[in-house]
Structures are given as structure tokens and as C-alpha cells.
Amino acid sequence: MPPSSSPIPPLRTTEARWFLRGETPAEVAAWFDALGPPVEGSSRTDRYLAPTSDALGVKLREGQIEAKRLDGPAGTLDAGRASAPLETWTKWSFALAEDSVPEDGWVEVRKTRRQREHEAGGGTCRLELSEVTVDGDVWWSVCLEAEGPSAGARQRALATAAARWLGRPDAPALPAEAAMGYPAWLRAVG
Questions:
Q1: What top-level branch of life does the organism fall under (predicted)?
Q2: What's the CATH architecture for 8-189?
Q3: In a structure prediction context, what are the per-residue pLDDT tens digits for the chain, which is 190 residues long?
């Protein structure tokens, strides 16, 4: 299945992500809304290759195929009522002709998400609040994902954003046992 164009250069991120069962609680939506100006949400359906490892994810999204590999641990996040292992990931994206994708082996994930962004320490950190549905099963998810030219820049951006957003008294409880990447979550719900 050759890609139809050259890959976009790899992107390295440091992130923490939590998945909790059910629709997004009203108090969590209110917390996200209180963080700044209104943010429009977007909805889409991504198709994930059914994962066989927690360390590798492959998805189809809007004419792109993306592969994301877990590079390893990057410390621990403890901010307010949120706790999670931090993970470093590398992502590659390729444009792909839709007719070159086999039909079998994919899991459809419907997502509605909103994002905020914070720049600090030479990096950028995004906060994402999503509602995701797989086979009619609804979950909500919070993610902090930092990009930057170095591990230090990503760590500084993520730490600053976590303190700003998750250190608030109205921030949701995000326990370490709910923290995992998409491949681990898809394996758990599959």
C-alpha cells in the first residue's frame, strides 16, 4: 500500500491522555469553558487499525494515514487532581488515496473535540477535551500534548499548561489508572 506522496517530517510530542467512561460531565464542560474564550468543537470519524500493541497506533483521517509510536516515558504529571505518566511519541503522516485502503481490520472512532493552546518555555501545549464513541460505547477524554524543538521545551510547555489548566480547583479528577494512549485504550475497549 504505497503512499501517494512523501511523508510529512516526523513530529515528536510529549503527552498525557485520560479516558473515562460516559458522556462528558457538565462540570467538566464548564471547567473547559471557564479556561478562556469560547472554542468551537469539531467532529469527525477516524479509522484506527485494530492495535496489537500499546506502543503503536495507525489511523486514517481525512485522506491521511498516520503512524504514532511510543518512544518511552518522559516523567510523571501531577497537577491538581490529575496524575499520569508522561509519554513521548513520534508521529508520521502520509497522504493516501482512499481506494488504496483495505476495508478489514479497522475500528471506527467518532470524535467530537475542542482544543485550547498555550505557548511557554519554547514549546506549545494543547489541551483537548473530547467525547469519543466506539461501537456505541461513549467515553470522554482529556489530553495534554506538547510540541517543541527539544524534550526540555516540550516538558516546560506541558508543565506550565498543566499547572494553568489542571491546577484549578474546578479541574476534573483525572486518575493515573485512566491515563493511556489511544492504542492502549482501543485494546482495552476492544
A1: Bacteria
A2: Beta Barrel (2.40)
A3: 444 455 678 999 999 999 999 999 999 999 999 999 999 999 999 999 999 999 999 999 888 899 999 999 999 999 999 999 999 999 999 988 767 777 889 999 999 999 999 999 899 999 999 999 999 999 999 999 999 999 999 999 999 999 999 999 999 999 999 999 999 999 999 8
Where do the domains of the chain lie? 8-189
Q: What is the 3-state secondary structure (H, E, C) of 82-150?
A: EEEEEEEEEEEEEECCHHHCCCCCEEEEEEEEEEEEEEECCEEEEEEEEEEEECCEEEEEEEEEEECCC
- pTM score, whole prediction: 0.93
